[in-house]
Write a structure and sequence with these properties.
The protein is of the alpha+beta class. The protein contains 13 helices and 8 strands. It is elongated, with a radius of gyration of 26 Å.
Length: 455
Amino acid sequence: MFHSHQRREGLSAAIFGLWRNWTIAIGFLAVLSFVSPLISQVWLAPVCAVLFLALQVVRAAMNNQTVPVCSRLYKEVSVIILVITCVVLVRYFITGGDGSFELTGQPVNSKGPLLGILISAPVTALVTAFFLLQRREPLVCQLCHLRYGNVVKNGFIGMLYQREWRYQTRLLMVLSLILTVVDWTYYLCHYINVNLNRADYFFFLWLPLSLYVISLLYLGWRYYSLWVFYCHNDEGHLVENPSSTTVRFLVICDDKVLLDIRRTDKFFNNGVVIKQFDTPAVATLPYQERYDAGRAAELFRQISGIRDAEIRPMYDSPDNVTYRNIFHFFAFIGNPDEITESKIQGEWFSLGELRQLMNQHLTGNDFNSEMARIYRIAMAWKTYDREGRRLYKFKHYRPTFRIKDIRNWEVDYNDGHWLTVGRLNEDSHLFRLRRFLKRLEDKIRRHTPMTNLFT
């Protein structure tokens, strides 16, 4: 089964969805710069608050699409609008008294407009630079990876979204720097805050709007070119390649996990070899929408030669774009010596040793995702109820996590609700407010039809 038509539709939605993200997210900033010269400065902070809330509604609706949507740009613009709101409020209260002067030396005109672009442009430049220099993966990406699984994170869609987010963020930073230099130079040298003339409207209103329109045309051309390249290329391309299913088994015995330290070396173009340990029990099959534990047990016997292993499902990593999904299973064995005479080989590692390997980036991406999901869901399930309330009276209490206990746990690792509880619980900051916003977001999603845009 090739699914070439479905993959072309999915890739088209993913690629043009990047242009849609830019149009919506940066459109909110464009609206702010367009509106601010036309209203009194008293109303600018409320306008920013309304734009922030509206962006959250749009973000929640976009996350209800059949194709995974990258929310990182929405998150970035949300932070920008929040910072702008804080700066506007601080500026308003500082200059609210009589005798206050602007940077140009002119008296503050409280009845005149507050030129939002003078605040939004430098704030955008600083926030985008912060996001680009941030080394840790942001929470929005962690949640996306845990929600959609390994295929989206480590596959084509994940790499596309990561690359294009950096490209769009750099473009946004460059445009905001240009506006900062041009508009602040004009403001300090030529602006008179009695009224707005044609030159004022050009620099503070039409110039930001023009750059926004030009960016839409430029990125539209860029993503059309990507669409042609990825969706209308030669017959050996991703769209025409056979789809596949990967079945992975996390082999566990007592309090240790089996890892293959030989076959997972990664060779790079510069000749560097990096070891990335991974489970030795992996099989790639023709694409299958479902794979139950019975078939998985038979497959494990074939690839390992071990007949009495207990096979239990862990979770699934579907990908409705490239149709290359992964099914994750536990394989519990009673005696570590069974590996010696089996078809698979490896070494046993304790939890402490696994942490050291992961900290040194010596384990594979799929294995890292599996361990992260197991740990997050298990700790949430053991610490809180489904409403996020503590099961114990001690605040910030963390129960013990041991590999040998996994076999006895009755928890569904496919249940994304526990991922939410792990980050939104009684021990988290502003728990009740964040829970209310999360319920509001879920309500928006439920009332938003599941659609696949640009198909």
